[in-house]
Amino acid sequence: MLFLLALTSLVVGVMIGALGVGGILLIPAIAAFAGLDIHTAMGTALFTFIFTGIIGTLLYHRLGSVDWRLALPICLGAVAFAWLGALANAHADASGLKLGLALVILFAGLHIVKPIGRTRPGARGSDTPGSRTLLMCIGSGVGFGSGLTGVGGPILSIPIMVAIGFDPLASVAAGQVLQIAAAASGAVGNLAYGRVDFGLAAWVTLLELVGVWAGVRLSHRLPRERLKACVATVCILLGGFMAVQSLLAWL
Question: Which residue range forms the structural domain that includes residue 239?
Answer without folding.
Answer: 2-250
